[in-house]
Amino acid sequence: MIPEDLFYSEEHEWVRLDDEIATVGITDFAQGQLGDIVYVELPAVGDRVEAGAVIGELESTKSVSDIFSPLSGEIVARNESLDGGPEVINSDPYGEGWLIKLRPLDDDPTSGLLEAEAYAALTAD
């Protein structure tokens, strides 16, 4: 199930915009491809990131994968609970498994992202 109220990157991150703050995580499709996530490396609060840039890593029982920022902006929060329990990304990728929150720099931050229908087409077998 792909939530309709989010935006998506081709690298399988999702974005939820709330009052000029964007919450970012990885999609259910991505966590399913990765398998059991055992470690997460995230950027620090205050870091400035560019859309498309590598901002961290997810380590799973299968591989290590880069996390790409879907937006340019400044990190305002990171999900500290993932340090002790990264497996929540597998069980709740669109909720408690969020990765970072950032303040977008662009006037129209979602212009380069996909809506749910387009993301569904991208991940269809």
Automatic annotation (TrEMBL):
Q: How many and how are cofactors bound here? A: Binds 1 lipoyl cofactor covalently.
The UniProt record lists the keyword Ribonucleoprotein: no
Query: What PROSITE patterns would the database entry show?
Result: BIOTINYL_LIPOYL, LIPOYL
Q: Residue positions of the PTM N6-lipoyllysine?
A: 62
InterPro entries reported in the protein's UniProt record? 2-oxoA_DH_lipoyl-BS, Biotin_lipoyl, GCV_H, GCV_H/Fam206, GCV_H_sub, Single_hybrid_motif
**CDD domains, alphabetically?**
GCS_H (cd06848)
What cofactors does the UniProt entry give for this protein? Answer: (R)-lipoate
Cite the Lipoyl-binding domain residue spans from the record: 21-103
Entry keyword Transport: no
The UniProt entry, under SUPFAM superfamilies, shows:
Single hybrid motif (SSF51230)
UniProt keyword annotations, A-Z:
Lipoyl
Q: Supply the NCBIfam families for this chain.
A: gcvH, PRK01202.1
Check the record and name the HAMAP family matching this protein: GcvH
Subunit relationships:
The glycine cleavage system is composed of four proteins: P, T, L and H.
* Family annotation (PANTHER family): GLYCINE CLEAVAGE SYSTEM H PROTEIN, GLYCINE CLEAVAGE SYSTEM H PROTEIN-RELATED
Q: According to its UniProt entry, what is the function of this protein?
A: The glycine cleavage system catalyzes the degradation of glycine. The H protein shuttles the methylamine group of glycine from the P protein to the T protein.
* Family from the record: Belongs to the GcvH family.
Q: What is this protein called?
A: Glycine cleavage system H protein
Q: Which organism is it from?
A: Aeromicrobium panaciterrae
